[in-house]
Every structure is written in structure tokens, then in C-alpha cells.
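Work Package 3 (structural annotation) set out to generate three-dimensional models for the target panel prioritized at the project kickoff. During this period the team completed the workflow that converts sequence records into C-alpha cells, so that structures can be stored uniformly alongside our sequence database. As a representative example, we reproduce one entry of 170 residues exactly as it appears in the project archive.
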Amino acid sequence: MVDDRRAEQELPSLDTLAARLEYLFDRIRPTPEELGESDEPGRRYTNKEIADKINATAAETGVSISAAYIGELRRGVARDPRTSHVRALASAFGVSSGYFVDDAAARRIQEQITLLRELRRMDVKQVALRQVLADNGLSAGDTHLVEQMVARLRAVADAGGTSTTPDNRR
């Protein structure tokens, strides 16, 4: 399909951990529950917010991280994080930890995020979304990830006052 090839060509190269991490910061947004009343809906996460998400579960996971270290990872200054940090970063963004170490997993998650944005634009309902994803061979785990991303995108749009209802399509 021509559209599939075009979408694949538009995906940015994720050849370094820094590029993969930056891609998540660029595409995944805080939920309304994570935003304060004075926060701008749809804004990017800060390094501190991701560090806080990771550190909030430190008692359970034994993993803590600083905002400064996340910044170093994003800039490519730090290039060899501990496995526990990779897992914690993946968890904070709601993706598989394989995203950071496996090219095929990274490409698959990129494609899922792209699909998610398109599905959101098309206002696909959750039941229909599950069927589309299952028909395309996505696992139950991948389907759950996409559903979470759709919910997150809708929450961000709702908090920003934008609507994608049939009466107000973009």
C-alpha cells in the first residue's frame, strides 16, 4: 500500500537511545490527572516529571533516577544506562522496555503511536479499535498499549478544550 510506505518513510530514525527517548518525550503527553490546574494541556513532560514518576515507585522497584540524568540520556551525554533505568523509563512512558534496545520493537512502537494518532483523528471507538488491532495481528499487550495511548490522547484533547466529535471534526 502506498500510504503504508509513506507513513513508514515519515517515521524518524531511532538509531540511538537518546533519539528513542526524545521521540517518547515528543509524542507522549501528561494525562490531565498528571497536570496541575495552571499547566498547559498537551505540553511535553519535563525531565523532572518523568524522574518523579519513576521515583514514586522506587520503594517497590528499587529504582530511582534524577532529572539531570534523564537530561543526559536525552542529549546523548550518558549512553549506557543500567537495565533498571531503561525498564523504569519504559514504564514511565507506558511502552515496552524492548523499545530502547530492539530496533524491531522501536519501529513497532513508532508505528503504533502513528496509528494511534490516526485512529484518534478518525474518532474510532474502543471496541472498533480492538477489532482493528486484532485484525492487524497485534497481541493483547500491544492492543492494551494502544488503548492506553488513545485514552491519554483523548484526555489531553479534552483538557485542552478540543473536540473530535462528529460535529467538530478537524
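The CA atoms of residues 14 and 23 lie 8 Å apart.
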